[in-house]
Every structure is written in structure tokens, then in C-alpha cells.
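Open question from group meeting: does this chain pack into something compact, or does most of it stay loose? Before anyone orders reagents, we agreed to write out a predicted structure and look at it together. Recording both the input and the output here so the notebook holds the full record.
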Amino acid sequence: MGLEVEFSTIIEMFDRVTQQFVHEKRPMLMHKVEGKYRGISYVEMRAWVEMFAHGLAALGVQRGDRLAVISENRPEWVVADMGMMLLGAANVSIFPTLAPKQIEFILNDSAAKIVIVSNQFQLNKVKKIAGDVPSLKNIIVMDEKVQVEDERTLTFSKVTAIGKEQASQQPDVFREAITKTKPDDLLTLIYTSGTTGNPKGVMLTHKNLVSNMKASIECIPFVREDTLLSFLPLSHSYERMAGYYTAMSSGATIAYAESIETVRENLLEVQPTVVTTVPRLFERMYNRMMKQIGSAPPLRQKIFHWAVGVGRRFAKARKRRTTPFFLRLQHRLADKLVFSKIKERTGGRMKYFVSGGAALSRELGEFFDAVGIQILEGYGMTESSPVISVNRLDDYKFGTVGKPIPGVEVRIAEDGEILARGPNVMKGYWNNQQATDEIIDKEGWLHTGDIGMFDHDGFLVITDRKKHLFVSSGGKNIAPQPIENLFLQCKYIDQFVLIGDGRMYCTALIVPDFDMLKEYAESEHISYNGSEEQLLSMPEINKFFEEEIGRIQKDLSQYERVRKFTLLGKPLTIENGEITPTLKVRRKVVEEKFKSIIDKMYEGIR
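C-alpha cells returned:
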């Protein structure tokens, strides 16, 4: 169970896995081709990586070079990553949602020699800024249908074909790479998205990621029979370590979703056993479920709520390791009538979800646990490769991010900040020693910027980001994240941003769930012309949200309660820079963009 091979570098892991499973019938990777999932074997992947690496070498790539990848999740991402690793080059992983100017900064800061892009859209972005990146020698495009108009732009297949000719002349490329690649060598540069200033390039070594893989898999074992559905960006350290390197080292099959919008359909097609994801997926699943139950006949609603109640009691009894006979009988019936149908929506084979990137509310975790879907929440950051702590299959507590993983020390500073130290902590920030010294102290402690505490059972509890803590004009400390999570449980709210730092009271920017809101308007016979803009202007809708907000926040302290709010007609998006690729709100960006709207909610305050 767990790791299938022993290794000290990622390229050694790939070499040994592809040799060990040379006769394996289950595919290494799966992706959609002409509407159907197609598997790629271990033999095919090894040969492809070797040929592509030789192709890169023919273009002049050498040990120590930096090559950038701008692509959605697909097999070519893995081939590019492992190919450059064979040559000792570092992968500069760039989110495909970034704008040309942001890409330009990263390419220049890293002095990238080659940039590998997925399609025409990404190619066009790079072409806009290529003339301002002196280090850039070549652009490689994965899609075959792109318009290649200059000599330095090549297709992925062309580079592979060039390498195929060279591969026969140098058959020992893997052995050479393993001999030359050391654990402390730079593996990747991942640029973190700062809320102010330019992003910083996190330097992660083979040692960083290998230590995190081995420690994580002790806590949450993957096995070779597992199938993972991958849809979080591979350019993010979370999916890179957990959904790619760790899964691959276990011999599991990795299937790529077509996009984040098709995850529902791909779950049914792939029937995964494990999925790494973010809390937003569960919020949407829950709201969709509540919407369907809300419109179901009374008897079906009654059965559903009875089953969830049984599930909650059963989950608590199971944790105490004692389940009464009658409760077991009730649970079997609840599973047959309700839970089995919910689990079918995840493909029917799901063992557990791993959740990270943002906080999962206790209520959501307990609900899904009650219906038989286990969610293991973890915590970390890019600078720690990324996992610091995680809940285990047999040792978990909702509302926490689990216990520290083996080999990683965690302590709480006097001001409540979480500090971490271990072999997973980054080498530093690329070309930025000052920023490195600010986040890693002389004793090697990584200052996470998060506020937290250990509960009496040793589970780590995150309160909020240190820099996100509000201090009201009355001097009250307010942690926005738990409050935002509370409101996001409302089926009529899709996105929620709390405002209140330095203010006399809290306000909020709210993006409604328009599908749910339109259903409400129809049920209440609220007449409007069909446009979402007019719907939000209706007095009845504003009053409805006032009542919902009052109901949700009734147990909050007075200074934490939302006094005024504004309904937004369009969602916050990655493309507009308002949320990160893991769907976390960029608070400063949002506050600046909606400054006039926010200021209006505080007019007349002295």
C-alpha cells in the first residue's frame, strides 16, 4: 500500500515506475480524444518522455536552464515536465489564466529559454510579449492545429520527432539523468500570486517534493488500483504533488478532466476512487442537492432528512468505534434509499476526496460524512511543497486541517501565526533574498502568514490569514474567512466577500446563485423582464436577502454581523484577477475594483 518504488528524485521515481509497470494493463494516464477517454500506457509514456527530452536537447536545452509551461491539464504537460527533468532543466509552471503582462514578468524573471503552450489562445498571449523577453529562444505548441508562422515556433510533435532520431543513438538517457540529478537540484519555479506587487518564484527542489510525497502518502495512502480525476491546475503545487507525483509513484491511473466545467460529467465517465479538490466543489454539490430536494415531493424530502439524521448518528458512533445493531440496520436502509444515489453522482467508486487550497466548513464536512462521502482536509502552501498537515482516514476531525505530517514540525508563534519547519520548506524565492529572509527565519521556520491553534486532541485549526484579519474602527478583531464560509452555505449565494477592515461595521459584496434566485422569484410570483440585472433591482429580492442574511448571522457577535450589502450581477473570475486558480478571493484586488460600491455602503458614517 502506498509507494510502489523507492527513489530520492522525481525523475528516478518516473524511471522506476515506468520500468516496474512495463506490463501493466491499466493505463498510466487517461484523457479525452474525440469524445472518449483514451489510456496511455507506462511504455508509451516512457518512450514519449525520452523522445521529447532528446528533442529539447537538440534545441540547446542544458542542465540548469528554465523552461516555462502554460497549459491546461493534459498528458503533454507531464511529458514536458518529465522531459525537461531528464535534462536537468527546471519547470517554470505558469497558470494558463494569466494575462500577457503577468506572463512577461515571469518569463523575464526566470530567464526562461523555451515556453511550451497548449493552444492558439496561449500562443497568441506569448506572441504579444515575446519580443520583450530576451532569453526566449523557442515556443513549442501542443495542439497540432495552430498556425506556426515563424522558425522559432515548433509543434510538440515536431520536437518529439526530432528527438526520436536522437533517442536511438543515446539509449541510456534515464541512467545518465538519475546519476546527475541530485535531491537538492532545482525542480520547479512556481510563481505565487501576490495581492500586491509582482509574484515571487518559489524554488522547490526534488528533496522538497519527494519528502512531501513520502510523508503525505503515510497519512493518505494511494494504491495502484486507484484512479484519480485531475482538474485542479498542474501549475499549482497542490495538484502537482498530490494529484500527479504522489499518484504516479503509487502506480495509480490519472485521468484528466476536460475542464473544471465538465467535472460532473467526467466523474461519471472516469468513476474515480480519489479526487483532490477545493471546498468550492462541495459547496456547489451541496447547493445543487438542496435545490433538488427542495423541489421534491414532501415524502421524498422527509426520507432524505431522516437518512441524513441517521447518517450523522452513524458517523458519530463509528468514530467511537461502536455502532448499535438497530442503527446499523437503519443506516443500511438509508444507504439504499438515499446515500447510494448521492455516491453514484461521484462515479460510484469514490473512496475519499482530499480537500485543500481553502478552508472547508465544519458543517459541509459533517454533512458529506453523514451521506457516506469522506472528505480529508489538509493545509499547506506553495512554499512548503505544499502539505503541512492533513486529516487521516482513521484520525480526522471536521473544522480542522488535521495533524502535522511526518517530518514536519509545526508551532504557534506568540501572535498566533503558524510556523512550519522541515525538508519540505522551499529553497527560497528566485532572485529575491530579501523576501526569502522575511518568510524563513534564521532557525529555518517558515512563517506561513496564517493564524491558528492546536485543539486539545492535537488537530490544527486555521482561523484566518494573518494579513486578512480585520480590525474594526472600534478595535475589534474580525476573522473574515469563517464568516464568509457561513454565508456560502446559503443556496442563494454563490460568492461572498466580507468588508470591514478599519470600518465601523461589516458590509458584504454578494454574487447570487442566479439559478436558485430565479426559481425563488418564480415561486413568489415576482415579475421581471428576465434579465438578471433587473432581478437584482427588485425590492422584493433585496428584502429577501436582508432576511436571509439576518437568519444566517443570528449567532454571530454584533461586530461580526453584516449591516449592509451589495448584490453583484457578475461573478468574480480568475480571468479578471479577482480570484486565484484555486478559487480564493484576492481581497485587495476586489476591494480596489469595487471601491466606489464599497464606499457607498459607508456613506454618512462619521
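Observations to bring back to the group:
The two ends are 64 Å apart (CA to CA).
The chain has three domains: 10-273, 279-348+350-466, 469-600.
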